Amino acid sequence: MQNIKRLFVILVLFGVLVSPGCLGGTKSADAYYSAGMTLFNQGKYNEAITMFDSALAVNPNFKEAWVYKGVSLDQLEKYSDALVCYDKAIALDPNDTLPWYNKGLIFGGQGQYLDAITCFDRVIAIDPKDAEAWYNKGVALELLGRTAEAKTCYDEAKRLNPSLT
Description:
The protein is an all-alpha fold. The chain has 9 helices and no strands.
């Protein structure tokens, strides 16, 4: 009986030692994210989401994976799911402008102009030189009929980036 227990312990230890994690067989969050970005850049958004999910399974605090999972979902027109991802990214880094900006675009596209303005205001507070945020805030204001405020935003966007129209 002692020999069987000893053999069992040895087999358990051997199993632990040769598990994929110990042999380096598991991918890192960075590797999954990199694969996801490659797929994203190829327009393979569903496959990219799978890789971003894998990165997040390894590291749930991987902000960039949350952002680009959101962007991928956005490209697939799964806006409510994209917003959840952007909110997760914002919770990890409230000063990252990309998730705020993308939330603003989604809200604007859904006719939620006040929410869009809130998001663009956040981008502008973080980076006052973000011409696109100024411009899109102007669009939302104009769609609300607040043309004087919209003109101020358009003027600032044009000042920051003369190629914007």
